Amino acid sequence: MNRVTIIGGGWAGLSAAVHAVNSGWQVRLLEAAPQTGGRARRITHQGLALDNGQHILIGAYRDTLALMQLVGVDTGKHLWRMPLTLRTPDGDGLRLPALPAPLNVLAGIVSARGWTWEDKWRLIRRAIQWQQQRFECSAGMSVAELCRGLPPAVMALMIEPLCVSALNLPPAQASAPIFLRVLQDALLGGIGSSDMLIPSVDQSRLFPDAAVQWLQQRGAEVVTGHYVEDLSPYLSSPVVLACPPWEAARLTHSINPAWSAQAAALQHTAIATVYVQAHAKVDWPYPVMALRSNSTAPAQFAFDKARLSGDTAMQGVIAMVVSASNGDREQISQAVLAQAREQLGLQHATVLFAVLEKRAAFACTPDVDRPSAQPGDQVLACGDYVQGPYPSTLEAAVRSGIQAVALLKGLHMRENTL
Ligand SMILES: Cc1cc2nc3c(=O)[nH]c(=O)nc-3n(C[C@H](O)[C@H](O)[C@H](O)COP(=O)(O)OP(=O)(O)OC[C@H]3O[C@@H](n4cnc5c(N)ncnc54)[C@H](O)[C@@H]3O)c2cc1C
Questions:
Q1: Is 360 near ligand 1, meaning CB less than 6 Å away?
Q2: Closest Cα to residue 197, out of 64, 293, 102?
């Protein structure tokens, strides 16, 4: 059996490991942290199973969903599925009805609240134009340029929340081709592809814990608490780097300086999740609410953790997400607390716990130059940052793991022919 060493046990590394085992490889996975999951993992606070960051998946994440099912996760039970809903507490915004695409989009726009008929008509015309252009645009375009001329209410209640949650950048800085690709897959990817899938369990239970168990049952070696300092001890067989780009850059410095420099040059953006204790009854129409976000009220979304999890211990716990966040943890927490009081009417709310992940996502700017998946002859790379159609997301991470295994097969075949 051919041996492969995978360095990093986030969703990309676990995806690579599961697919490699399925393709007959003997897998050794080395993870620096005490637990797998990387940026999408559980953090326990005062006995509550919270996350390193509140996540949302969408129905278009087909490889992520297939992988979760492969390792035995009940995606119907562990993900709360609802139609795309961007409704603010005052009821404004978009909600797609349960109809086949593109009827759901059309009906959602027509029934959106807080937009004039002129606003809706302009959005419909622009959506038709994007579809006629096959959701393609020039590589260097920003989302703000792509959406120039759309009404301010449509920008504020639809484009900005979608852009910042998918690309973790405001429209002026975000890549238009990648935004269009996500829109296309979500809106036209088939039944349910635009649905929001919100975890009802913590991020580790959602996939990494089941993946590790699945791997170990099939003879793979999963070692946590093992930080790889140097690649040389592992290079007698193929290596897959599944660590973040700055670590991959360090490990490949002497193997491929150009690839290493490219990975090191990526910029990163932050996401904060502020867990707020409501100290009041939370009675929203949906378990996730869109918020009106600005520099002083920075959160874009709020999640009712008790409703999502069905766990009474989570009563009153609200996860408030600040994508593309600025400032330190304390400043963000205080601003979010004021926003919870003002926009959600939670006058007695207090901050329970806040996580600020400074390098949450690579900056998906129009000029971003993503490294390839093969830095060396025997060295492959996977992770949400490697070249691919998606921004920094779970789906990008999972797909990159699949791609690394496809390249592994190529290496193996080449070796056998030589
Ligand atoms: C707060 C937050 C919110 C997010 N929200 C969403 C969302 O709503 N939807 C979505 O799709 N995506 C979201 N993302 C993005 C998503 O979490 C990432 O795209 C994904 O987890 C990246 O996985 P990865 O395996 O590529 O990298 P990572 O998760 O970073 O995994 C890399 C692993 O490598 C390990 N490692 C590093 N160096 C070494 C070494 N030298 N030796 C051994 N191991 C090493 C690390 O410990 C880590 O476990 C969010 C991210 C954050 C932080």
A1: yes
A2: 64
Q: Is the pLDDT of residue 305 over 60?
A: yes
Residue 258 has pLDDT above 80, yes or no: yes
**Distance in Å, CA 311 to ligand 1 centroid:** 26
Closest CA to 134 of 178, 193, 181, 194: 181
Global model pTM greater than 0.85: yes
Would you say residue 1 has pLDDT above 70?
A: no
N-to-C CA span, the chain: 18
Q: Is 332 in the pocket of ligand 1 (CB under 6 A)?
A: no
The reply to whether ligand 1 has any atom less than 6 angstroms from the CB of 7 is yes
Could you read off the pLDDT of 9-48 as tens digits, one per residue?
999 999 999 999 999 999 999 999 999 999 999 999 999 9
Read off the amino acid at residue 3: R
Take atom 14 of ligand 1 and give the residue whose Cα is closest: 393
Task: List, for residues 197-218, the tens digit of each pLDDT value.
Answer: 999 999 999 999 999 999 999 9
Q: Is the beta carbon of 241 within 6 A of some atom in ligand 1?
A: no
Instruction: Give the number of other CB atoms < 10 A from CB of residue 98.
Output: 11
Task: For residue 37, report the distance from its CA to the centre of ligand 1, in Å.
Answer: 7
Q: Decide if pLDDT at 343 tops 70.
A: yes
Name 90's Cβ contacts closer than 8 Å, sequence gap at least 6: none
Closest CA to 210 of 4, 11, 5, 398: 11
Phi, psi (rounded to 5 degrees) for 277 = -95, 120
- Taking CA atoms only, the protein residue closest to ligand 1 atom 1 is 53
What domains are there in the chain, each with its CATH number? 3-38+200-266+370-417 (3.50.50.60), 84-194 (no CATH), 268-362 (3.90.660.10)
